[in-house]
Specification:
This protein is of the alpha/beta class. Helix 2 crosses helix 3 and helix 5 packs parallel to helix 6.
Length: 249
């Protein structure tokens, strides 16, 4: 069994990835998780809703998810979900469109306070609807897998506040991988891991720190997550882009 995370940047490239055998070879006993940052940005612009990008004290850039932005986030990710499901069905794959709200697939907890650096000062943000993942409903997920391939939008549910939450898609894939004790975690991205402009085909987990200097942004997060996953007992993490793939084991 594997978990495949489809990055928001490559949803528009699914046909090309399919032709290159990047997706078609991954459809056996699989759970798909996806993001949709590009869809969120596009829908926000269409609706005239300003989305504020903030930077944490540790230097990570994130989207401020107010209640208004949360509504856009949910709508945009479900649009991305529909596009992926429709594409897979056009290829003869029985895909099931879901989000973490369905049967409490992804239970989260809203962050009551997040910190951001604004005008050089650390500021507390209390109106954000992003969250941390607390639990995966493995029983429900297993039942869906008996019917088809689950395609899960990265939206969690907070049962205490009864609200959906913005959660990171890579972390959703990570938590599902651990909860379901999968064999392989697979990231479909716009690029494999690069060092000095070249794809690194293999990285043993004990050598992963040697490559951290080359990782930026989302790729750095994937490196750190890959280390956690493998140390938790998963066989391998694959990052595939249009330029090749990197296997971490």
């Amino acid at each position: 069994m594997r978990v495949v995370k489809i990055g928001g940047s490559v949803i528009s490239m699914l046909e090309e990835l399919w032709r290159s055998d990047g997706i078609s070879s991954l459809m056996d006993n699989t759970v798909i998780v996806h993001g949709g940052s590009r869809h969120v940005d596009e829908l926000s612009r269409k609706l005239g809703i300003k989305v504020e990008k903030l930077t944490s004290p540790s230097g990570v850039t994130f989207r401020r998810t107010t209640r208004e932005v949360l509504d856009v986030y949910v709508a945009a990710l479900m649009k991305a979900n529909r596009e992926i499901v429709e594409f897979l069905r056009s290829q003869g794959i029985n895909a099931i469109g879901l989000s973490g709200l369905d049967r409490g697939l992804i239970i989260g907890q809203r962050k009551k306070l997040i910190k951001a650096v604004i005008n050089g000062k650390v500021v507390a943000i209390r109106d954000d609807y992003s969250g941390v993942i607390k639990q995966i409903n493995t029983d429900a997920l297993s039942e869906y897998m008996k019917v088809g391939i689950p395609v899960i939008a990265s939206i969690a549910y907070d049962p205490v506040e009864n609200v959906p939450l913005n959660v990171d898609g890579d972390k959703v894939a990570y938590h599902i991988a651990l909860a379901m004790r999968i064999r392989e975690l697979y990231f479909l991205s716009d690029t494999a891991f690069l060092a000095n402009g070249r794809v690194v085909p293999e990285i043993p987990v004990e050598k992963i720190e040697d490559y951290m200097a080359y990782a930026r942004g989302g790729m750095r997060k994937k490196r750190m997550m890959a280390k956690k996953v493998i140390e938790s007992g998963i066989d391998s993490v694959v990052i595939e882009g249009l330029n090749g793939w990197t296997v971490i084991y």
